[in-house]
Amino acid sequence: MSNQIYGIRAVLEAIEAEQPINKVFLQKGLGGELFRELETSIRKNGISCSYVPVEKLNRLTKNNHQGAVGQISPVEFHKFETLVEQVLEKEKLPFFLLLDQISDVRNFGAIIRTAECCGVHGIIVPKNGAAPITDDTVKTSAGAVFNVPIAKVDHLKDAIYYLQSSGISVIGATEKTENQIYSTDFGVPCAIVMGSEDKGISNAVMKVLDGKAKLPLLGQIGSLNVSVACGVFLYEVVRQRSEKN
């Protein structure tokens, strides 16, 4: 696997240097002062972490990992507030996409590709529980991952509050509403929220939305793949805005 760093000290220094780390794998049962310092740094910086058997680390790298392997993102993440401010300065109709616990890297890549094609100004994901940006993500996105700003936040709910205070309407894509997508006004500054592949939008996020919209499903299957559903939502925004121009 590419884009890896290994060794307790190396991973710790990468975190302190603010490298875009997707996830850290730590060996179960290890201790020691330096190892505990690494654990503290991981928690402080909100980095996704898993404790795994040594066999897992041995499969990740043939090098002397010392019980710690970090996976570095191939792209730099943007600071959320700075991204929003920059978009507000440049765009009359800001257009954001929030992903609530999308965990499949290929779905993530496909969503990024569609977002880039639809002119989305920024994608916002939570630090924990979101799919990492891997080589598969880059490939599935057809390189779009390098063209769309992506920001990580501690909590999506707080990000939604910030967007709302900036005059941006936040709409959730969910079947838990009677309001269909085609009766929703996207001709305003807006952000679309897409939920996870299995559970949809979390209850905490659902409670703070400005509106909800669903897609009509006329067949036997009860839902669409999240990347397909996201594409329909994003292109409805494009359609409505193009008609107004």
Describe this structure in words.
- The protein has 245 residues and is of the alpha/beta class.
- It folds into 2 domains: 69 residues, Ribosomal protein L30/S12 (60s Ribosomal Protein L30, Chain: A, 2-Layer Sandwich), CATH 3.30.1330.30; 165 residues, Alpha/beta knot, CATH 3.40.1280.
- 37% of the residues lie in helices and 19% in strands.
- The protein contains 9 helices and 10 strands.
- A 6-stranded parallel sheet has the order 7-6-5-9-8-10, sandwiched between helices.
- Strand 5, helix 5 and strand 6 form a beta-alpha-beta unit.
- Helix 5 packs parallel to helix 9.
- The longest helix has 19 residues.
